[in-house]
Write a structure and sequence with these properties.
Blueprint (H helix, E strand, L loop, with lengths): L2 E6 L9 H12 L5 E6 L2 H11 L4 E5 L16 H7 L3 E4 L2 H6 L4 H13 L3 E6 L3 H5 L3 H12 L10 E4 L13 H19 L7 E5 L4 H8 L6 E4 L6 H8 L4
Parallel strand pairs: 1-2, 1-8, 2-3, 3-4, 4-5, 5-6, 6-7, 7-8
Helix pairs in contact: 1-2, 1-10, 5-7, 7-8, 9-10
The structure holds 2-phosphoglycolic acid (PGA).
Amino acid sequence: MRKLIAGNWKMNGLRASSDVITEIVQGLEGTEIEADCLICPPFTLLGAFAEQTAGSGLKIGAQNCHAVASGAHTGDVSAQMLADIGASHVILGHSERRADHGELSSDVAAKASAAVDAGLVPIICVGESLADREAGLTRKVVLGQLDMSLPDALVEKPFVIAYEPIWAIGTGLTADAGQIAEVHHAVREALVKRFGEQGHNVQILYGGSMKPANATEILGVADVDGGLIGGASLKAADFLAIFNSAG
Ligand code: PGA
C-alpha cells in the first residue's frame, strides 16, 4: 500500500515557518519515493500553506474540525471551511484533544462524518495510556476507541487511522516493533471485519516519537502504512529523512 507520511505541527508555527514548507517542497522534488506527504499546521497557517504548496507534492491538512457545517459555534471551524481553504485531510481525536478538550469517541465519529461530507480525508487517532498498557488493556482500549470513533458514513470513503500510544507521544519512547505489529494487526482485522474489502485499503499510521533514527524500522513493520509525526515534523531535514524512509 502507498504510505502516508504526515506531520502534526500541533500548536507550533508562525508565518515565518513557510521557510520549512519551502524546504520540504524542494526536498520532495528531489526524491523518487512514491508516498503521500502531508503537513498539518495550526488553523492560522492553513490558507497560506495551501496556496504555497498548490501543485506540489505536499498536501496540507488540519488538526481538528467541528461536527456541523456552519452556525452559532463561536471560535470553531467547520470541515467545509477547511476544504474551502485547501486542506485535504483533518486529524481527529488526537489524544491531546481527547485529554485537553474532553473529546469522546462519539464526538470524533460526528466530526469524521462532517469531514467526509466535506470531501476531507479524516485521520482518526486511537491509542492507549501507559496505565492501560500495564493493565493489559491495550487491545480492548484501542479497538473500543476504533469502534466508537468510526461512523458508518466512512463506508466507501477514504479515511486513515493513526495508532498513537499516548505514552510514546513527545516522550522519546517508542513502541517496539512487536508492540506496533500486534496493535496494527488488530486494527486491520477490526477494519476488515467492519468495512470488508475497504478495510484492507485503509492506511494505518504509527505515531509516537517517530524520528529519522527509528523510521526505517517502524515503517518496515507489517500493516504500518505510514507515520504521524509531531516533534520531528517541525524540522524539514528530519521530516524529509523520515519521508525518505518510506520507500
Ligand atoms: P511526537 O507526536 O512525534 O512528537 O511524539 C506525535 C503525535 O502526537 O502525533
